[in-house]
Amino acid sequence: MKVPVWNPAVEFLEREALERLQLANLRKTVAWALKTPFYRRRLAEVGLHRPEDIASLRDLRDIPYTTKEDLRESYPRGLLAVDLEQVVRLHTSSGTTGMPTVIHHTQADLDAWTELVARCIVATGASRRDVFQNMTNYGLFTGGLGLHYGAERVGMLVIPASSGNTSRQVQLMRHFQTSVVHATPSYLLHLHSALMDEDTDTSPPSLRKAFIGAEPHSEETRRKIETLFEIEAYNSYGLSEMNGPGVAFECLYKTGLHLWEDAYLLEVIDPDSLRPCAEEETGEIVLTTLQRQATPLLRYRTRDLSHLVGGHCPCGRSHRRLARIKGRSDDMLIVNGVNVFPSQIEEALMKAPEVGTNYLIQVEKRGALDRLAVKTEVHAALFAGDARVLSDLRERIAERIRAAVLVKPSIELHEPGSLPVSEGKARRVLDLRPAF
Ligand code: AMP
Ligand code: ZN
Protein backbone atom coordinates (compact mmCIF):
# COMPACT_ATOMS: atom_id res chain seq x y z
CA MET A 1 0.00 0.00 0.00
CA LYS A 2 1.36 3.43 -0.91
CA VAL A 3 1.41 5.56 2.23
CA PRO A 4 -0.18 8.97 1.68
CA VAL A 5 1.77 11.69 3.47
CA TRP A 6 1.58 15.47 3.80
CA ASN A 7 5.03 16.38 5.09
CA PRO A 8 7.48 13.48 4.54
CA ALA A 9 10.50 15.49 5.71
CA VAL A 10 9.05 15.73 9.22
CA GLU A 11 6.77 12.70 9.43
CA PHE A 12 9.55 10.21 8.66
CA LEU A 13 12.30 12.06 10.51
CA GLU A 14 14.70 9.63 12.17
CA ARG A 15 14.43 9.39 15.93
CA GLU A 16 17.76 11.07 16.59
CA ALA A 17 17.01 13.99 14.30
CA LEU A 18 13.53 14.26 15.76
CA GLU A 19 14.97 14.50 19.27
CA ARG A 20 17.46 17.16 18.18
CA LEU A 21 14.56 19.15 16.77
CA GLN A 22 12.62 18.64 20.00
CA LEU A 23 15.49 19.95 22.08
CA ALA A 24 15.85 23.05 19.91
CA ASN A 25 12.10 23.62 20.07
CA LEU A 26 12.00 23.03 23.82
CA ARG A 27 14.60 25.75 24.33
CA LYS A 28 12.57 28.13 22.19
CA THR A 29 9.48 27.22 24.20
CA VAL A 30 11.24 27.91 27.49
CA ALA A 31 12.31 31.28 26.08
CA TRP A 32 8.68 32.09 25.23
CA ALA A 33 7.50 30.77 28.60
CA LEU A 34 9.95 33.03 30.43
CA LYS A 35 8.12 35.99 28.92
CA THR A 36 4.96 35.12 30.86
CA PRO A 37 4.50 36.23 34.48
CA PHE A 38 3.31 32.75 35.42
CA TYR A 39 6.30 30.79 34.14
CA ARG A 40 8.88 33.41 35.11
CA ARG A 41 7.85 32.80 38.69
CA ARG A 42 7.38 29.06 38.36
CA LEU A 43 10.68 28.45 36.59
CA ALA A 44 12.66 30.72 38.92
CA GLU A 45 11.56 28.45 41.78
CA VAL A 46 13.54 25.60 40.21
CA GLY A 47 16.48 27.79 39.20
CA LEU A 48 15.60 27.97 35.53
CA HIS A 49 16.28 31.48 34.27
CA ARG A 50 17.47 31.07 30.69
CA PRO A 51 16.63 28.69 27.83
CA GLU A 52 20.30 27.59 27.76
CA ASP A 53 19.74 26.07 31.19
CA ILE A 54 18.07 23.22 29.28
CA ALA A 55 21.05 21.09 28.22
CA SER A 56 19.18 17.98 27.12
CA LEU A 57 15.64 16.61 26.84
CA ARG A 58 16.17 14.92 30.21
CA ASP A 59 16.23 18.37 31.84
CA LEU A 60 12.53 18.55 31.13
CA ARG A 61 12.10 16.51 34.31
CA ASP A 62 13.23 19.48 36.42
CA ILE A 63 10.40 21.61 35.11
CA PRO A 64 7.27 21.65 37.31
CA TYR A 65 3.97 20.40 35.88
CA THR A 66 1.29 22.80 34.69
CA THR A 67 -2.32 22.00 35.61
CA LYS A 68 -5.75 23.17 34.53
CA GLU A 69 -5.92 25.05 37.84
CA ASP A 70 -2.77 26.97 36.87
CA LEU A 71 -4.45 27.92 33.61
CA ARG A 72 -7.59 29.04 35.40
CA GLU A 73 -5.62 31.10 37.89
CA SER A 74 -3.68 32.75 35.07
CA TYR A 75 -6.92 33.78 33.35
CA PRO A 76 -7.12 35.81 31.23
CA ARG A 77 -3.57 36.80 30.23
CA GLY A 78 -1.14 35.44 32.80
CA LEU A 79 0.17 32.93 30.27
CA LEU A 80 0.44 35.26 27.32
CA ALA A 81 4.00 35.29 25.97
CA VAL A 82 3.68 37.84 23.15
CA ASP A 83 2.39 41.39 22.74
CA LEU A 84 -1.35 41.53 22.33
CA GLU A 85 -0.93 43.02 18.84
CA GLN A 86 0.58 39.75 17.70
CA VAL A 87 -2.40 37.71 18.86
CA VAL A 88 -4.92 36.93 16.11
CA ARG A 89 -7.29 34.52 17.84
CA LEU A 90 -8.19 32.94 21.14
CA HIS A 91 -10.05 29.80 22.09
CA THR A 92 -11.39 28.84 25.49
CA SER A 93 -12.08 25.38 26.83
CA SER A 94 -15.55 23.95 26.28
CA GLY A 95 -18.24 23.89 28.89
CA THR A 96 -16.70 26.23 31.40
CA THR A 97 -17.90 29.52 32.81
CA GLY A 98 -16.44 31.84 35.39
CA MET A 99 -12.81 30.95 34.93
CA PRO A 100 -12.34 29.08 31.67
CA THR A 101 -8.93 28.25 30.32
CA VAL A 102 -7.86 30.44 27.43
CA ILE A 103 -5.32 29.80 24.70
CA HIS A 104 -4.06 32.71 22.58
CA HIS A 105 -2.63 32.20 19.09
CA THR A 106 -0.37 34.24 16.83
CA GLN A 107 -0.69 33.82 13.07
CA ALA A 108 2.37 31.53 13.19
CA ASP A 109 0.63 29.43 15.86
CA LEU A 110 -2.46 29.06 13.68
CA ASP A 111 -0.31 28.16 10.65
CA ALA A 112 1.55 25.51 12.66
CA TRP A 113 -1.75 24.08 13.95
CA THR A 114 -3.17 23.99 10.43
CA GLU A 115 -0.08 22.10 9.25
CA LEU A 116 -0.59 19.46 11.95
CA VAL A 117 -4.23 18.97 11.05
CA ALA A 118 -3.31 18.69 7.35
CA ARG A 119 -0.87 15.90 8.25
CA CYS A 120 -3.61 14.06 10.15
CA ILE A 121 -6.12 14.33 7.31
CA VAL A 122 -3.70 13.10 4.67
CA ALA A 123 -2.46 10.25 6.91
CA THR A 124 -5.97 8.73 6.71
CA GLY A 125 -5.85 8.68 2.91
CA ALA A 126 -8.20 11.65 2.52
CA SER A 127 -7.12 14.17 -0.12
CA ARG A 128 -7.98 17.29 -2.10
CA ARG A 129 -10.39 15.18 -4.15
CA ASP A 130 -12.65 14.77 -1.10
CA VAL A 131 -15.68 16.75 -0.02
CA PHE A 132 -15.35 17.32 3.71
CA GLN A 133 -18.34 18.06 5.90
CA ASN A 134 -17.35 19.31 9.33
CA MET A 135 -20.14 18.42 11.75
CA THR A 136 -18.55 19.82 14.90
CA ASN A 137 -19.31 23.13 16.48
CA TYR A 138 -17.75 26.26 14.98
CA GLY A 139 -16.90 28.70 17.70
CA LEU A 140 -14.79 28.63 20.80
CA PHE A 141 -14.75 24.83 20.56
CA THR A 142 -11.67 23.94 18.55
CA GLY A 143 -13.08 21.03 16.52
CA GLY A 144 -14.82 23.36 14.08
CA LEU A 145 -12.17 25.87 13.05
CA GLY A 146 -9.28 23.47 13.74
CA LEU A 147 -10.35 20.84 11.23
CA HIS A 148 -11.69 23.50 8.89
CA TYR A 149 -8.38 25.21 8.23
CA GLY A 150 -6.50 21.90 8.00
CA ALA A 151 -8.94 20.59 5.42
CA GLU A 152 -8.70 23.80 3.39
CA ARG A 153 -4.91 23.59 3.51
CA VAL A 154 -5.14 20.07 2.07
CA GLY A 155 -7.37 21.50 -0.65
CA MET A 156 -10.55 19.61 0.18
CA LEU A 157 -13.92 21.11 -0.61
CA VAL A 158 -15.02 22.08 2.90
CA ILE A 159 -18.65 22.29 4.02
CA PRO A 160 -18.65 24.13 7.37
CA ALA A 161 -21.90 22.53 8.48
CA SER A 162 -21.16 22.87 12.21
CA SER A 163 -22.97 20.67 14.70
CA GLY A 164 -26.63 19.66 15.02
CA ASN A 165 -29.55 20.08 12.61
CA THR A 166 -29.49 16.49 11.47
CA SER A 167 -31.87 16.83 8.54
CA ARG A 168 -29.76 19.61 7.08
CA GLN A 169 -26.61 17.54 7.59
CA VAL A 170 -28.19 14.71 5.60
CA GLN A 171 -29.35 17.07 2.89
CA LEU A 172 -25.87 18.60 2.54
CA MET A 173 -24.31 15.14 2.38
CA ARG A 174 -26.64 14.06 -0.38
CA HIS A 175 -26.58 17.27 -2.43
CA PHE A 176 -22.82 17.75 -2.37
CA GLN A 177 -21.63 14.12 -2.28
CA THR A 178 -19.82 14.42 1.02
CA SER A 179 -17.06 11.82 1.19
CA VAL A 180 -15.43 12.62 4.56
CA VAL A 181 -17.08 13.80 7.77
CA HIS A 182 -15.80 14.92 11.16
CA ALA A 183 -18.08 14.37 14.16
CA THR A 184 -18.25 12.91 17.62
CA PRO A 185 -18.86 9.15 17.53
CA SER A 186 -22.15 9.55 19.40
CA TYR A 187 -23.40 12.09 16.88
CA LEU A 188 -22.56 9.81 13.96
CA LEU A 189 -24.55 6.98 15.53
CA HIS A 190 -27.41 9.40 16.08
CA LEU A 191 -27.14 10.52 12.46
CA HIS A 192 -27.36 6.94 11.33
CA SER A 193 -30.61 6.32 13.18
CA ALA A 194 -31.97 9.51 11.62
CA LEU A 195 -31.03 8.17 8.18
CA MET A 196 -32.76 4.89 8.93
CA ASP A 197 -35.91 6.78 9.84
CA GLU A 198 -35.95 8.28 6.37
CA ASP A 199 -37.71 6.27 3.68
CA THR A 200 -34.53 5.94 1.63
CA ASP A 201 -32.98 3.68 4.26
CA THR A 202 -29.42 4.10 3.01
CA SER A 203 -26.45 6.14 4.07
CA PRO A 204 -25.15 8.55 1.41
CA PRO A 205 -23.16 6.37 -1.04
CA SER A 206 -20.47 9.02 -1.50
CA LEU A 207 -19.35 8.76 2.14
CA ARG A 208 -16.08 6.89 2.65
CA LYS A 209 -14.37 8.17 5.80
CA ALA A 210 -15.12 9.68 9.18
CA PHE A 211 -12.84 11.40 11.68
CA ILE A 212 -14.20 10.72 15.15
CA GLY A 213 -13.06 12.29 18.39
CA ALA A 214 -13.69 14.76 21.22
CA GLU A 215 -15.07 12.03 23.49
CA PRO A 216 -13.98 8.60 24.72
CA HIS A 217 -15.23 5.68 22.68
CA SER A 218 -14.43 2.02 22.25
CA GLU A 219 -13.09 -0.06 19.39
CA GLU A 220 -16.60 -1.57 19.21
CA THR A 221 -18.13 1.87 18.67
CA ARG A 222 -15.67 2.55 15.88
CA ARG A 223 -16.51 -0.80 14.23
CA LYS A 224 -20.21 -0.09 14.59
CA ILE A 225 -19.80 3.25 12.80
CA GLU A 226 -17.72 1.59 10.10
CA THR A 227 -20.23 -1.20 9.55
CA LEU A 228 -23.36 0.93 9.66
CA PHE A 229 -22.07 3.50 7.18
CA GLU A 230 -19.74 1.13 5.29
CA ILE A 231 -16.85 3.55 5.78
CA GLU A 232 -13.46 3.78 7.52
CA ALA A 233 -13.41 5.70 10.81
CA TYR A 234 -10.24 7.26 12.28
CA ASN A 235 -9.71 8.30 15.87
CA SER A 236 -8.79 11.95 16.39
CA TYR A 237 -7.38 13.16 19.72
CA GLY A 238 -6.82 16.70 20.82
CA LEU A 239 -7.58 19.22 23.55
CA SER A 240 -8.00 22.96 23.45
CA GLU A 241 -4.99 23.50 25.73
CA MET A 242 -2.86 21.90 22.98
CA ASN A 243 -4.64 23.85 20.15
CA GLY A 244 -7.42 21.29 19.68
CA PRO A 245 -7.59 18.56 17.03
CA GLY A 246 -4.30 17.69 15.36
CA VAL A 247 -2.44 16.46 18.43
CA ALA A 248 -2.68 12.75 17.61
CA PHE A 249 -4.50 10.89 14.85
CA GLU A 250 -4.72 7.42 13.40
CA CYS A 251 -3.14 6.73 10.03
CA LEU A 252 -4.47 4.28 7.44
CA TYR A 253 -3.26 1.34 9.54
CA LYS A 254 -5.16 2.29 12.72
CA THR A 255 -2.48 0.91 15.04
CA GLY A 256 -2.71 3.77 17.53
CA LEU A 257 -2.70 7.55 17.24
CA HIS A 258 0.52 9.12 15.93
CA LEU A 259 1.33 12.09 18.13
CA TRP A 260 3.24 14.84 16.29
CA GLU A 261 6.41 14.89 18.31
CA ASP A 262 7.98 17.90 16.63
CA ALA A 263 5.05 19.91 18.00
CA TYR A 264 4.43 18.19 21.35
CA LEU A 265 6.79 16.61 23.83
CA LEU A 266 5.06 13.53 25.17
CA GLU A 267 5.31 11.98 28.62
CA VAL A 268 3.13 9.32 30.20
CA ILE A 269 3.20 9.36 34.01
CA ASP A 270 1.57 7.57 36.90
CA PRO A 271 -1.04 10.14 38.05
CA ASP A 272 -0.44 9.35 41.73
CA SER A 273 3.29 8.79 42.12
CA LEU A 274 4.14 10.98 39.06
CA ARG A 275 6.86 8.52 37.99
CA PRO A 276 7.26 7.94 34.23
CA CYS A 277 5.36 4.93 32.86
CA ALA A 278 6.96 2.22 30.76
CA GLU A 279 5.85 1.59 27.17
CA GLU A 280 2.44 -0.14 27.12
CA GLU A 281 1.82 0.92 30.76
CA THR A 282 -1.27 3.06 31.22
CA GLY A 283 -0.83 6.48 32.76
CA GLU A 284 -1.69 10.14 32.34
CA ILE A 285 -0.62 11.96 29.19
CA VAL A 286 1.55 15.00 29.87
CA LEU A 287 2.29 17.33 26.97
CA THR A 288 4.62 20.25 26.37
CA THR A 289 3.99 22.54 23.41
CA LEU A 290 7.08 22.83 21.21
CA GLN A 291 5.93 25.33 18.61
CA ARG A 292 3.46 27.65 20.21
CA GLN A 293 4.53 31.24 20.73
CA ALA A 294 1.53 32.98 22.27
CA THR A 295 0.66 30.40 24.95
CA PRO A 296 3.53 28.01 25.61
CA LEU A 297 2.63 25.23 28.05
CA LEU A 298 5.24 23.17 29.85
CA ARG A 299 4.43 19.66 31.07
CA TYR A 300 0.67 20.15 30.95
CA ARG A 301 -1.22 17.42 32.81
CA THR A 302 -4.03 16.50 30.43
CA ARG A 303 -5.72 14.08 32.88
CA ASP A 304 -6.31 11.76 29.91
CA LEU A 305 -5.29 8.16 30.45
CA SER A 306 -3.59 6.10 27.74
CA HIS A 307 -0.37 4.24 27.00
CA LEU A 308 2.38 4.33 24.44
CA VAL A 309 2.13 1.67 21.75
CA GLY A 310 5.40 -0.23 21.27
CA GLY A 311 7.05 -1.17 17.99
CA HIS A 312 6.76 0.56 14.63
CA CYS A 313 3.74 1.40 12.55
CA PRO A 314 3.74 -0.13 9.05
CA CYS A 315 3.26 3.39 7.63
CA GLY A 316 6.88 4.16 8.57
CA ARG A 317 6.19 7.40 10.47
CA SER A 318 8.65 7.91 13.31
CA HIS A 319 6.20 9.77 15.56
CA ARG A 320 5.12 7.51 18.40
CA ARG A 321 1.58 6.27 18.91
CA LEU A 322 -0.88 6.54 21.76
CA ALA A 323 -3.51 3.90 22.40
CA ARG A 324 -7.09 5.16 22.39
CA ILE A 325 -7.95 7.21 25.49
CA LYS A 326 -9.15 4.95 28.30
CA GLY A 327 -10.59 7.55 30.64
CA ARG A 328 -9.63 10.47 32.85
CA SER A 329 -7.73 10.79 36.09
CA ASP A 330 -10.14 13.49 37.33
CA ASP A 331 -13.92 13.65 37.60
CA MET A 332 -14.56 15.48 34.30
CA LEU A 333 -17.50 14.05 32.36
CA ILE A 334 -17.75 14.30 28.60
CA VAL A 335 -21.39 14.65 27.58
CA ASN A 336 -21.93 14.49 23.83
CA GLY A 337 -18.43 15.83 23.34
CA VAL A 338 -18.76 18.69 25.81
CA ASN A 339 -16.55 18.76 28.92
CA VAL A 340 -18.57 19.00 32.11
CA PHE A 341 -17.16 19.25 35.62
CA PRO A 342 -19.57 18.16 38.37
CA SER A 343 -18.43 21.13 40.45
CA GLN A 344 -19.80 23.51 37.82
CA ILE A 345 -23.21 21.85 38.01
CA GLU A 346 -23.16 22.06 41.79
CA GLU A 347 -22.28 25.74 41.66
CA ALA A 348 -25.15 26.51 39.28
CA LEU A 349 -27.56 24.36 41.26
CA MET A 350 -26.77 25.91 44.60
CA LYS A 351 -27.55 29.38 43.27
CA ALA A 352 -31.26 28.52 43.43
CA PRO A 353 -32.39 29.32 47.01
CA GLU A 354 -35.08 26.62 46.85
CA VAL A 355 -32.48 23.88 46.45
CA GLY A 356 -31.41 21.71 49.39
CA THR A 357 -27.99 20.17 49.81
CA ASN A 358 -28.52 16.68 48.44
CA TYR A 359 -28.31 16.14 44.69
CA LEU A 360 -27.29 13.55 42.14
CA ILE A 361 -25.89 13.99 38.64
CA GLN A 362 -26.72 11.15 36.31
CA VAL A 363 -25.48 10.51 32.77
CA GLU A 364 -26.95 7.78 30.61
CA LYS A 365 -27.38 6.82 26.98
CA ARG A 366 -30.66 7.73 25.32
CA GLY A 367 -30.38 6.13 21.90
CA ALA A 368 -26.94 7.07 20.59
CA LEU A 369 -26.68 10.32 22.53
CA ASP A 370 -25.77 11.07 26.12
CA ARG A 371 -28.42 12.42 28.42
CA LEU A 372 -27.64 14.48 31.49
CA ALA A 373 -30.09 14.44 34.40
CA VAL A 374 -29.83 16.30 37.67
CA LYS A 375 -31.90 15.15 40.62
CA THR A 376 -32.11 17.53 43.51
CA GLU A 377 -33.96 17.91 46.76
CA VAL A 378 -35.91 21.14 47.20
CA HIS A 379 -37.82 22.66 50.12
CA ALA A 380 -40.84 20.61 51.17
CA ALA A 381 -43.24 23.58 51.01
CA LEU A 382 -42.90 23.70 47.22
CA PHE A 383 -44.69 20.40 46.81
CA ALA A 384 -47.79 21.64 48.60
CA GLY A 385 -48.45 24.48 46.15
CA ASP A 386 -49.18 24.93 42.48
CA ALA A 387 -47.53 22.39 40.13
CA ARG A 388 -46.55 25.28 37.89
CA VAL A 389 -44.17 26.56 40.55
CA LEU A 390 -42.27 23.27 40.32
CA SER A 391 -42.15 23.24 36.54
CA ASP A 392 -40.94 26.86 36.49
CA LEU A 393 -38.23 25.98 38.97
CA ARG A 394 -37.19 22.96 36.90
CA GLU A 395 -36.84 25.14 33.85
CA ARG A 396 -34.95 27.84 35.75
CA ILE A 397 -32.45 25.33 37.15
CA ALA A 398 -32.02 23.60 33.78
CA GLU A 399 -31.32 26.94 32.09
CA ARG A 400 -28.85 27.98 34.76
CA ILE A 401 -26.93 24.73 34.38
CA ARG A 402 -27.05 25.01 30.60
CA ALA A 403 -25.56 28.48 30.83
CA ALA A 404 -22.75 27.12 33.02
CA VAL A 405 -21.83 23.90 31.23
CA LEU A 406 -23.41 24.26 27.77
CA VAL A 407 -25.47 21.10 28.18
CA LYS A 408 -29.13 21.32 29.19
CA PRO A 409 -30.01 18.66 31.74
CA SER A 410 -33.40 17.28 32.61
CA ILE A 411 -34.22 18.21 36.20
CA GLU A 412 -35.99 16.04 38.75
CA LEU A 413 -37.15 17.70 41.96
CA HIS A 414 -37.42 15.59 45.09
CA GLU A 415 -38.74 16.10 48.60
CA PRO A 416 -36.12 16.54 51.32
CA GLY A 417 -34.68 13.23 52.50
CA SER A 418 -35.81 11.26 49.47
CA LEU A 419 -32.53 11.01 47.56
CA PRO A 420 -30.12 8.32 48.77
CA VAL A 421 -27.55 9.56 51.26
CA SER A 422 -24.29 7.68 51.01
CA GLU A 423 -22.29 6.98 54.10
CA GLY A 424 -18.86 8.53 53.99
CA LYS A 425 -17.89 10.43 50.85
CA ALA A 426 -21.00 11.56 48.97
CA ARG A 427 -21.43 9.91 45.61
CA ARG A 428 -22.81 12.69 43.51
CA VAL A 429 -22.19 11.38 40.02
CA LEU A 430 -23.70 8.29 38.50
CA ASP A 431 -22.39 7.50 35.04
CA LEU A 432 -24.65 4.78 33.68
CA ARG A 433 -23.19 4.74 30.17
CA PRO A 434 -21.76 1.41 29.12
CA ALA A 435 -18.05 1.09 29.86
CA PHE A 436 -16.03 1.64 26.71
P1 AMP B 1 -11.64 20.13 24.60
O1 AMP B 1 -10.52 20.86 25.26
O2 AMP B 1 -12.98 20.71 24.86
O3 AMP B 1 -11.37 19.93 23.15
O4 AMP B 1 -11.70 18.67 25.25
C1 AMP B 1 -10.56 17.86 25.24
C2 AMP B 1 -10.82 16.55 25.95
O5 AMP B 1 -11.72 15.74 25.20
C3 AMP B 1 -9.56 15.73 26.05
O6 AMP B 1 -8.76 16.12 27.15
C4 AMP B 1 -10.14 14.33 26.22
O7 AMP B 1 -10.54 14.09 27.55
C5 AMP B 1 -11.37 14.37 25.31
N1 AMP B 1 -11.06 13.81 23.99
C6 AMP B 1 -10.71 14.48 22.87
N2 AMP B 1 -10.51 13.63 21.84
C7 AMP B 1 -10.72 12.37 22.32
C8 AMP B 1 -10.65 11.06 21.75
N3 AMP B 1 -10.34 10.85 20.49
N4 AMP B 1 -10.90 10.01 22.57
C9 AMP B 1 -11.22 10.21 23.87
N5 AMP B 1 -11.31 11.43 24.46
C10 AMP B 1 -11.06 12.50 23.70
ZN1 ZN C 1 1.06 4.84 10.99
- Estimate the helix proportion, in percent: 25-40%
Give the amount of beta strand, in percent.
Answer: 15-25%
Distinct ligands, ions and cofactors found in the model: adenosine monophosphate, zinc ion
Count the strands?
21
Query: Which residue ranges are poorly predicted, with pLDDT under 50 across at least 5 consecutive positions?
Result: none
Output the strand order for the largest sheet.
4-3-5-6-7-8-9-14-13
Rg, alpha carbons: 23 Å
Mean pLDDT: 93
CATH class of the largest domain: Alpha Beta
GO molecular function, one term: ligase activity
Pathway: Aromatic compound metabolism; phenylacetate degradation
Domain AMP-dependent ligase C-terminal: 337-433
Family: Belongs to the phenylacetyl-CoA ligase family.
Describe this structure in words.
Residues 337-433 form the AMP-dependent ligase C-terminal domain. It catalyses: 2-phenylacetate + ATP + CoA = phenylacetyl-CoA + AMP + diphosphate. It is a single chain. With 436 residues, this protein is α/β, with parallel strands linked by helices. It folds into 2 domains: 1-329, 3-Layer(aba) Sandwich (Rossmann fold); 333-431, 2-Layer Sandwich (GMP Synthetase, Chain A, domain 3). The protein has 11 helices and 21 strands. The protein has helices spanning 8-11, 15-33, 37-44, 68-73, 107-123, 142-154, 166-176, 185-197, 219-229, 342-350, 387-405, and strands at 87-92, 102-106, 131-134, 157-159, 180-183, 209-213, 232-239, 244-250, 257-259, 264-269, 283-289, 300-306, 308-309, 321-322, 327-328, 333-335, 338-340, 355-366, 369-378, 410-414, 429-431. The chain has a 9-stranded mixed β-sheet with strand order 4-3-5-6-7-8-9-14-13, with helices on both faces. A 4-stranded antiparallel β-sheet has the order 10-11-12-15. Helix 6 links the parallel strand 3 and strand 4 (157-159). Helix 5 packs across helix 6, helix 8 packs parallel to helix 9 and helix 10 (342-350) crosses helix 11. It is globular and about 75 Å long. It starts with 7 loop residues before the first helix and ends in a 5-residue tail after the last strand. The mean pLDDT is 93. Bound molecules: adenosine monophosphate (AMP) and zinc ion. Zinc ion (ZN) binds next to loops. Residues 251, 253, 258, 313, 315, 317 line the site of zinc ion (ZN).
